[in-house]
């Protein structure tokens, strides 16, 4: 990792240098008299940020004895040994990336679709392996301040003279900052906040001089970045001198030198002296304070002086004219100061001139229209020019114009208090509010007719933006008698409004109103499954059924996201039974699931809801029966995701009662054929069933919710900008809270570890099962590492990512067994530390008469273990992989569940990780790691689910000192955001740097057994 520091040199300008956490290398020595910094990053590492010139600089840095001290922000894998010597500043030669000011402003401050490495580092504080020290963030702050001055026109041009020796001076054009008022205070704050390391370059120790030089340089660069010849005023009159034209042209060029005679440039410099007052203002003994006061009938802008010696002393102008002598100690010559300051203020805000008609000016009266203009721009201009302005307390009150909308079910609608869908038509009523005041029609008319934007409303002065008011009134006129759908109202509540003003409130009558205000849960009526339903639901399952039934009444899509094993299938079958028995619904529902779950659905329906008529549309014979006949004579049609994608046009031809998609993570990619097919299918109600609504990225949640309730989260680009980027990239808690509040009504999530959900569910005990490699494994591991790291280091792009994945696969195979890596069909024997550890564990399992599930991602490893374990243990051995057909799969699972003997079930992770009920097993062994917590947890849930009566032991095999242990540590560190950060499978690891990969894969001594 590189910790990047910023410095500024009076002679060379801004620069960057970095500390390398991997340096100094072990055994590095330092020759006597050499002052090169031992762990400063080299030229290539710096030029990764920006391809600019790198030259050494002599920096004074904190040191102890003959070694520099690590920055407190530098993170090392192994901290360096601390020295007891005194801390001192010592000179070191350090490679520095020197930045041209204009190149810096164009790189960092220019909006671009492709962010450079340097811009990314300075805006976010990190980029890849590069971390920004506080000095870099400080440079960014000064850059932004300089750019803000330029954008607001707080700059003036000047002629500066460069000493060329021999009494010669060369003229140069310069843009300088104008620092007055708030800008002067901001500059002072930045000057005092300068980190010590920022001025570590030789000759740059004086803080005030350094800041002034830096700000002037950056302001000049920012102006030139934004200015061209065309944007500068051309001085084309006959009186314009050649020197003036050359100077104006030089103000927009990268070369600041002015090519004109020295005599003419001296005359121009003298003429520009009138601007000196702005560029180098004198500090008066007192500052002018302008106080806007009010009575019921008029406003006054009162004049006062505040002492610069004692800022707590504020003297009104009346007292100045009466008691000048007693105030001179604090205000200098107060009358002269007051008049001079008022004269300057008049240039900024001309109405003050009326107050100066009096021989003893104390205030100026303002009309309501003048006050409105003063509050809008005048006060801000005065503050920016350095004057203090005091405004009435009501000015800070919220007076923004906002909109409110409410929706009501039409009186003639039969759905007023029962069922309505997303397309139910509502009457929309729009209102306009000003701050906390909802405006009546009479008040809106009065505001529209007012001659001033400052009006008195209900006893309080308020300012109204007339342009905003006009847009709001036009919008209301267009919305008169407007109707819309329930879906449109829900989208407005979710923040997807195109109204010209902020939409402050969305409300509705009846059920939809309680849904919007968060009280819908109190409106959910507890229901029971019909008498013919052959299952007794647990309390949480009854709540789930009632919730699904409630949303079915509303026609709103629902995601039942209960943990694996909590009975999503039985809750859905209960819903189908309930609504058909009550004659709410008669048409067929379409259920889509993975092929491996068809048998499970058939078995569960036959057991709990035999009255429901099921038809499976799958396989080669699926087209033989009449499709119309199938729809008319069945309650639920079951198909697979792959069949759905192939036969989508057939399914689109019918409006289904309900569209149900099980293991809904299959819809996580909205661009997949499956997701597109699901969005096409018309249905009165949609339900997603999944234990993992988000596996890897937030866009998976978007795809799921957009399939359930189209348009609820806006378009994909809007979702990315509003939620995905703020949450995933910047950990924006406000965006996360907004997203949660929008999706919460449609997503029911319960976990098995909640005692209130499944109080009788046994405990899940997770154990890291550590083991060591055999000598043969260690030798193979090191050989693979040596070969593959050389290839990775000399590759890039897709080839590099492929090599990284290949390396991980090879190393994981070596950790499993040498024969799996060599593919030579040799005997298992005692060649693998992992297999020996597995045998030791299974001995205990079999001795206690229990059952174990062994998951591996490699079918080859499982096929090696199958005969080996069969001859080693007196137990039933089962094996399931992706090639097993549905009938054989069901038979194998039933045998494992029913046998009374000790049993070992070998399962490939992909084939056996979902959709199986294996509660007779109470030991779960993850032999090789998938590195995705969601996938591993799904596999564990084959045993840890409702119906399990014993504590479940979950063991994850980890070899110390290998990639298994290091990636496990990385995942644990990221566990809080695992669903967002960890990529699909192992692809996220391919983006690590070569040095990080080398550290990740390295074989440590503790990996090898005796």
Polypeptide structure, described:
The chain is an alpha/beta fold. It has 5 domains: 2-224, no CATH class; 286-396, no CATH class; 401-521, no CATH class; 524-748, Tandem AAA-ATPase domain (Rossmann fold), CATH 3.40.50.10810; 765-1007, P-loop containing nucleotide triphosphate hydrolases (Rossmann fold, 3-Layer(aba) Sandwich), CATH 3.40.50.300. It is built from 39 helices and 34 strands. It has a 7-stranded mixed beta sheet, with helices on both faces. A hairpin with a 3-residue loop joins strand 1 and strand 2. The longest helix has 20 residues, at 207-226. Mean pLDDT is 82; it is low at 27-32, 235-239, 414-419 and 975-986.
List the helices and strands and how they pair.
Layout: E1 2-9, E2 13-20, H1 43-47, E3 54-64, E4 67-68, E5 87-98, H2 101-109, H3 117-124, E6 126-127, E7 130-132, H4 134-151, E8 155-165, E9 168-177, H5 182-192, H6 207-226, H7 242-250, H8 262-271, H9 276-279, E10 286-294, E11 299-307, E12 314-316, H10 317-322, H11 324-331, H12 334-348, E13 363-366, H13 368-384, E14 388-390, E15 401-409, E16 425-434, E17 437-438, H14 441-449, E18 454-457, E19 460-463, H15 466-478, E20 483-485, H16 486-493, E21 502-508, H17 510-516, H18 520-523, H19 539-554, E22 558-560, H20 568-581, E23 589-593, H21 598-608, E24 614-617, H22 627-632, E25 636-640, H23 641-646, H24 648-652, E26 656-662, H25 673-680, E27 683-689, H26 698-708, H27 716-730, H28 733-743, E28 747-748, E29 764-771, H29 775-793, H30 797-816, H31 818-822, H32 833-847, E30 851-856, H33 859-872, E31 876-880, H34 886-898, E32 903-908, H35 909-912, E33 923-926, H36 933-940, E34 952-959, H37 963-973, H38 978-981, H39 994-1001
Parallel strand pairs: 1-7, 10-14, 15-21, 22-27, 22-28, 23-25, 23-26, 24-25, 26-27, 29-34, 30-32, 30-33, 31-32, 33-34
Antiparallel strand pairs: 1-2, 2-5, 3-4, 3-5, 6-7, 8-9, 10-11, 11-12, 11-13, 15-16, 16-17, 16-20, 18-19
Helix pairs in contact: 2-6, 4-5, 4-6, 19-20, 20-21, 27-28, 29-30, 29-39
